[in-house]
Amino acid sequence: MTQELAAKSIGELAPLLETKEVSPVELTEAVLHNVEKYDGDVNSYIMLQAESAREAAQAAEQEIAAGHYRGPLHGIPMALKDILYFKGETATMGSGIHKEFVPDFDATVVSKLKDAGVVFTGKLNMHEYAWGATTTNPHFGACRNPWDLEKIPGGSSGGSGAAVAAHMAIASLGTDTGGSIRIPAASCGIIGLKPTHGRISKYGCFPLAWSLDHIGPMTKTVHDAALLLETLAGYDPQDPTSVDKPSRKYSSGLSGDVKGKVIGINEDYFFRNVDKRVDEAVRNAIRELEKLGARIEPVKIPSLSMAEYAELVTITSEASAIHHQNLKEHPEGFGEDTRFLLEFGELVTAVDYLQAQQIRRKLSNEFAQAFTQADVLISPTLPFLPPGIGDNTVDINGQSLSFLDEVIRFTGPGNLTGLPALSIPCGVRDGLPIGLQIMGPAFEEEKVLDVAFALEQLQLMKGAKPELLSTR
């Protein structure tokens, strides 16, 4: 029963908790059991908070028993990426420099989850300062992929992806500046949603690049992502990038009906130089949507050819501005890969940055035009399968290519434009999951979620689960 409980989604657990068929204490113990069983190998937690989680679970049980059920997140055990602030608790950002930093306020998303009755089990591993996509952390150790412990879980929210995939958290949150929610979601076979920029407040989240940063759900199901989005979305005057758009009941709007919907495909960029195993799985999923009545249409977005340049210039320069003083005074405090990227960002000129912003504006206009032709755009999330821990290259159809160059090739445009984008698993090849990315128009997350929900009903994963769970 322990394994079965921890493997369930929020949507499955919420009615059991509300009717007292399952207690928050029982559920929390099931999750903590899995942490004890698996995390010695996976290393998804930076800090396990077992005792405070048990106390919170007991409090939730008493509230529910007294008839004060708060809603579907009440009593749900979650662990969050250690970049989100909890008042009076250490927030390391996966770094050595901030390893003893203690904020004096809660992040807005943390406050909202607390109000919803979430039970927090701990802080999750991440790439140092969220500036990377492997979660091979020099200060807290490498996080490993539950599907294959020799592979990376993706990053920077790798601990979140691994913990949810291995049922060491029922759900989590990640941050996404170039793909850091969607990359680990694809690598670990879960759902990762980057909402529209400004939809979820970033107040109380240590920044990587202010104009590209997002916070979003990482979950087992599309319905769970919708539940978390409707809980977390909303205007926050404390976040200058927050947009005053009302939240919606995304979870109750999931129909999975794609008949007549137009799926846009951009072959020139999003299907160029893709591992044949990834290409096959994604195209198979598109064909299945077509069988359900969706229409597939080619779309042109010419400025995508400059997207990688614009993303690289923007993220490196903004990140280096944030870390400039520490890089100057404590360069030895950074891991080698993070220090390299920060030093590179110091070389970007004002001309480079302003040209990148002009590309962003053009790109946004072209995506907006594409969405007059299509409801959503579909692509692979990653052009390759997860590489080994420590690898600096990836293999794409026999070519050895730079991991850094390839990893945000398909996810970066979503950050440049701020458009909502979701990664959903669409199959398994050679024992590793493959992610499919769905992008939609600004502030129309419901379109993205509904197409993802339709794909989820097709059960393209065929019940496959991480090797870690299969062998123990």
UniProtKB/TrEMBL annotation:
Domain Amidase: start-end pairs: 26-449
Protein family (similarity comment): Belongs to the amidase family.
Protein name: Amidase
Organism: Planococcus chinensis
